[in-house]
Amino acid sequence: MSQKILGLFGGTFDPIHFGHLRTALELYQTLDLLEVRMIPCFQPVHRKLPVASPEQRLAMLKEAIISEPALKVDDREIIRKGPSYTIETLISLRAEFPKIPFGLIMGIDALLGFASWHRWEEILNHTHLIIAHRPHYELPRTGIIADLLKHRLIQNPSLIHDSFSGKILLHPVTALEISASDIRKQIMMGRDPRYLLPERTYQYILKHGIYHLSQL
Ligand code: ATP
Predict the structure, then answer these.
(1) Is there an atom of ligand 1 within 6 Å of 174 CB?
(2) Which of 24, 27, 102, 159 makes an SS bond possible with 127, Cβ 3.0 to 4.6 Å?
(3) Ligand 1 within 6 A of 19 CB?
(4) What's the pLDDT score for residue 201?
């Protein structure tokens, strides 16, 4: 089996930044993915509520990828509302694309908390995981995730095509230590976050006064 994989990249994207975008584009290119669907959540399950509204996070994402055809916006979690469980998103995507293998992209920090995700074992029946290596994070040696990796981890990207789902590929990406929380903090403090995120996204933030102290 050597069918192209559809990349799925979920996140709060509060706001989207070059750490997310560069990761998505590099994985698209090096793994020859069909495309990467960027899926902003409506309501994150494992963290506090986002600062920007779902509509604003969606709009900031659309501004960010406007000129990159490999990256697509998928707004199904925002339309669905409620807690954004990845398993439900995968089931809905599977109904739409019954024959395409999926690769759920996440940073290594997200993998470390994966065993607390709703119906996490089922997630692996629907998709591979593509783990973007981020600096300062190491794979665990003990615990549920370590056990999971023992059976499923692959380092050679070509092996991901051996099965339809269930593999965990660890893949290095250019390390950009950018975080949305740091960007929010900078804006709140009146600093300029330019060059950490796309200019169009930043202009949207300025226009709508998002993250500014008076908006919090
Ligand atoms: P916050 O700082 O608010 O926690 P964040 O910048 O980590 O946000 P999220 O939207 O929470 O952004 O992250 C979505 C996904 O993107 C996660 O899987 C996370 O691991 C990954 N990610 C976030 N920042 C980077 C980065 N700089 N490089 C690579 N992956 C990243």
Answers:
(1) no
(2) 102
(3) yes
(4) 98
Structure tokens at 170: 């660890």
The finding on whether 20 has its CB within 6 A of some atom of ligand 1 is yes
| C-alpha span between 190 and 207 (Å, rounded) | 15
* pLDDT above 90 for 187: yes
Any domain includes 214: no
Average pLDDT, the chain: 95
How many helices and strands in the chain, by DSSP H and E?
A: 9, 7
**pTM above threshold 0.85:** yes
Q: What is the mean pLDDT of the segment spanning 128-146? A: 90
Ligand 1 mutation target, pool 12, 18, 20, most atoms within 8 A of CB: 20
**Would you say residue 148 lies in a domain?**
yes
Residue 135 lies in a domain: yes
